[in-house]
Design goal:
Elements (H helix, E strand, L loop, with lengths): L5 H8 L5 E5 L5 E7 L2 E6 L4 E7 L27 E2 L24 E7 L4 E8 L2 H6 L4 E9 L3 E9 L5 E3 L1 E3 L2 E3 L7 E3 L5 E4 L7 E2 L4 E2 L4 E6 L5 E5 L4 E8 L3 E6 L1 H7 L11 E8 L5 E3 L4 E12 L1
Antiparallel strand pairs: 1-2, 2-3, 3-4, 5-11, 6-7, 7-8, 8-9, 9-23, 10-22, 11-21, 12-21, 13-16, 13-18, 14-15, 14-17, 17-20, 18-19, 19-23, 20-21
Amino acid sequence: MPTNDITVLNRNYGAPGRIAFREGPAGFPLLSLAESRGSCEIALYGAQVLAYRPTGQSPILWMSKCSAHVAAGKPIRGGIPVCWPWFGAHATDTRLPNHGFARLRRWRLLATTYDSHQTSARLQLAQDEETLALWPHPFRLEMTVSVGEALSLELVTTNRGDTPMTLTQALHPYFLVSQIAAVRVLGLENLAYQDHSPAKRDDHQHGALQIQAETDRLFRKATGNCTLLDPGIGRQIVIGKRGSQSTVVWNPWIEKAKSLTDMDNDDYQRFLCIEPAATDADAVKLEPGAEHIFGMTIQSLPI
């Protein structure tokens, strides 16, 4: 059983000035990684990055104030949730948790490392009786988070069973913005998208994407970088990815934000989600013993 003892974690895995632990929501430990060019904080609950701040810059990620009171078995709103082994609602059973169970489980810390280029942590989730009741596949899921010139997340899925398995997944970053109506997203121009907002207007993206209403767009064949331009903060956030064929852009806007109990009514103005994803049309299919690597990088640059 993974320990929640902060003293033990700091003794076994900590390093002065680079790696440290403290108690977080629901009593689960939080892990801080630091390097001369930036720092981040990770919850061992869900392997969820909660904060990332390049040195000398403002924070990159938005967190709901409600997440300070999250309970075990409930999702943390903000940061970078891990959606796995399904993205969105379960395909056949709506009683199962949205976005899978990985973000609702305590992960095991395998290792922390640091050198002159980056500071990293590696965490693992594996099947147990509870996961097998939700998803009947033996698996190993490892997350490596590194901070240096950029923030890097790498998620590796291994099929440990004797039958093929199929999964969908996403990394779901909430990017902090100065004002949602003022930002633009580059890198999706001319791509077709499916519109999952109430408007339901499938189309192609014409020019830079600007958020002017509830937005829930799934862009397919989106393998390149995206850039979030925020003139109010004076920065551009470059989002790279690996092992993903789709990108989701999401903001709940006014009415939906009011229905979400884990954020304030006006919080929609302060974040935008730009998500590397593998959805139904490009689901990951793994033969026994096979693995899949899925990841993203986040780098903040001045405009």
